[in-house]
Amino acid sequence: MEICFISGIEDLKAFKTPSIILIFIYFIPINPLWHLGFVSSMIPRISIPNFITNEILKMNMGSLLTLGMYLILFILYAFLIFVPFYMIYSQTSFIESCKLSIKTMLHQRKIWLLFIGIFLGYYVLETYVFPHYFLNVSDFNFYFLRYFVLSSTFRMRTILFIGFSILWVLVEIGFIFFQIKSVKDLEVNCSFEKTYLFHKIDVKTRIKHHKIAVSIVSLCSLGAFIFFYFNQEPLLHLPYAIGHRGDISQVENSLEAILAADANGADFAEIDIQMTKDRVLVLCHDTNLKRLTGQDIDLKDCTLEELKEFTIQDHYGHQAKIPTLEEAIQTAKNSPNQIGLLIEFKPLDGDQEETIHQTIELIEKYDFADRAMFMSMDAQSVEMLAREREDWWIGYCAFGNLGRIQIRLNDPFIPDFIAIEESAINTQLLEDARNNVLPVYVWSVDDIDAVQDYLNMGISGIIGDASDQVAYSVQKFKSQVNTDDEHYKTTCPGFPQLTEDEYGYIQCAR
């Protein structure tokens, strides 16, 4: 069979179809191109974001449900593996390509076996041989060279990424060749038209006429580039160890979980708060109680007294009661190691104002402001709190790609930090945050190697379910890191405080 190269936009006419929305669904969420980045994408690496699988694994039968999701995605992609071939080479519509691909895969036992073997091989290599050492597509940005030079961890990741990518490309080329040989009804319908002409410029001759000018400009430009490019801003504060919803050894968002995180040496316990029917703030992540109690009841429809009748439990069999925010603050304030709280607002529409006012009242009642951080995915809540108490440590919580971070002095709310789901972390975001004096906290991370990797890249806070592993890794990092002005703007205990003129941060003796 003859293979041809696509020569221009004309050869992509198969995309001009009413099924263009379905094409988008296939090539983005299903096709592994979204996950493999620069590597060829004709064999799969199925990647469900950790913040989704972590929530599912907290449910009863969560492991089986997660496995089922992966199997469905794997089978779906496998049956549609030939869609790009039929669309591009044969110029058939997306719907027709799907039908032809499914028909082909129903009779391709060897493809199935090879497909499964390659997928399992990739899983073993990524999970057990090279865990946490792969770069993301978003790491290939303007700051790539800076991290490669300044970070030994990033250099190791880059070298392993290149080696693994070469190996993987060779495997994929073999797989694609095997696919093409296996298809009997694929009619190649590509063109070989010339699409552009080269215009040759004699660069050497031009440079010879202007040697001195070119040399001066080149040296000045190189010197300026090196000075500004490698002049990395210091981080704001030493990293925090934060237990996600307390600690995984107890039921999430319980008083027992807060005390477990305190015993494990975490700096903070992250908790979620919502409002009951009778307007009391309680600790709970979900708006519905089914996952934790087995009862299909919305929290907003229950009074505090009714909630106290329920026993919440996790899939390990641990049990607890739903506590109020006041009880959580009392527990943290009286804890043996004086743990702080990272309070995440999860208000329903209309609850924001009362949630903020009650929180302020409770924090000040127990004089807890110096040990409390606040965040939310609800922008209105954090902006409202910042207007009321501008000196408190308040940030945004987000997941997904944030794009470029740009903070302006006239913004209605300038966050003290951002908390981001780990799949969104990349060097571009970290540099933007550094340039804006903005600490980045990442959730949810538990593996010691992954925690160390994030800390070496400049993450300022690790939020993880297993607070003992997070606390151990953070303490190990602190014992090894330099704490001079080139690395941290401030190493004072507590939250960073601005100087009186607000042009710097109060610095303490080390």
What does this structure look like?
Helices cover 45% and strands 10% of the residues. The protein contains 20 helices and 11 strands. The chain has helices at residues 20-30, 33-36, 50-57, 62-79, 83-88, 94-105, 109-129, 144-150, 152-182, 203-208, 211-229, 255-263, 290-293, 304-308, 325-333, 352-365, 379-388, 427-435, 448-457, 467-480, and strands at 240-244, 268-275, 281-283, 312-313, 319-320, 340-345, 372-376, 393-398, 417-421, 440-443, 461-464. An 8-stranded parallel barrel has the order 1-2-6-7-8-9-10-11, surrounded by 6 helices. A two-stranded antiparallel sheet has the order 4-5. The longest helix has 31 residues, at 152-182.
Key attributes of the depicted protein:
single chain; 510 residues; alpha/beta; eight-stranded parallel barrel; two-stranded antiparallel ribbon; 20 helices; 11 strands; 10% strand; globular
In short:
By secondary structure, the chain is an alpha/beta fold.
The level of helicity is 40-55%
> What distance lies between the first and last C-alpha atoms, to the nearest angstrom?
71 Å
Query: Shape, please?
Result: globular
Mean pLDDT: 80
**Total number of helices:** 20
For the largest beta sheet, what order do the strands appear in spatially? 1-2-6-7-8-9-10-11
Q: Radius of gyration from the CA trace?
A: 27 Å
pLDDT below 50 for ≥5 consecutive residues: which ranges? 1-9, 31-41
Structural class: alpha/beta
Major sheet: 8 strands, parallel, barrel
